[in-house]
Model the fold of this input.
Amino acid sequence: MIKLLSLLNELNIKPKTPIGSGMYHTAFPFEKFKDKIIKTGKGDVDISSGGVKKINQKPLNKKMLDIFQRFPKFFAHVYKITDKYAVIQKLDTEAFKSDSFKLARGLIRLVMSEPRFAKNNTLLYPYAINPSLEPEDIDISYFIYFLTFSRNYRLGKKLRKYLPRDIFDKFYDFFKALDQSGVKNYLPRNRADVHENNLGYDKEGNLKFLDI
Ligand SMILES: Nc1ncnc2c1ncn2[C@@H]1O[C@H](COP(=O)(O)OP(=O)(O)O)[C@@H](O)[C@H]1O
Ligand SMILES: [Mg+2]
Done:
C-alpha cells in the first residue's frame, strides 16, 4: 500500500514535459485547453535526494505580462496571472519558424540573383561574400528589423520580389505597426526580442510575440 501510494505520489509530481523553455521561462501544455499554455519561471529539478525537488526557481516576469496586456495586438493573450504561473494563449511557433526559413531562403535568392546589389548593401554584404550561405546562417532578428525600417526601403522593395507575397506582407505589416506603436518604449533596451523562438501565430493567423 505504501509502495503504491509513493508510486502514485511520484507520478503525480513528476514534472510534465515542457512545450518549450528559454533562459527565464518554461511553458507547459494546458491539458484541459489545447489553445492555452502555462508559463512559469524556469527552474531546475533536483532528484539527488530520491524525490523530485524544484530548485533555482526563477520568478515569473510580471513586467512582461503587463506589456502583453497593454498591447494585445502584438502579444499573446493573457488569461490569468498568479504569483507562480500565468495562463497564456498558445501560439503556433512551428509555423512562424517555417515562415522565417522561407524568408531566409528568399534572402539567399536575392543575394544570388543580384550579387551587385547585395555586395553594396551593408546588411547583405556578409551574406553576399559567404560562398556556402544556408538559411541557418541568416539572423532573422537582424534581418526583420532592417526589413521594416524605412531607411532600408530599397532592400524591402527588392526582397518583395523574392519572397512569397503573403509572408512578406504579414511580416512587413506586423513589424511596421510595432515600430510605429510606441511598444518599444516599454521594452528592455527599447527593442523587441525578435527571435525565431519568440513569435508565433494565433488561431486567426495573426503574428504575435510570446516573449519580450
Ligand atoms: N504562448 C506560447 N505559445 C506557444 N509556445 C510558447 C508560448 N510561450 C512560451 N512558449 C514556448 O516556451 C519557450 C520559452 O518561453 P519564453 O517566454 O520565450 O521564455 P524565455 O523568457 O526564457 O525566453 C518559447 O521559446 C516557446 O517555445
Ligand atoms: Mg524567449
Notes: Helices lie at 2-13, 62-70, 93-113, 115-119, 125-128, 140-148, 153-160, 165-181.
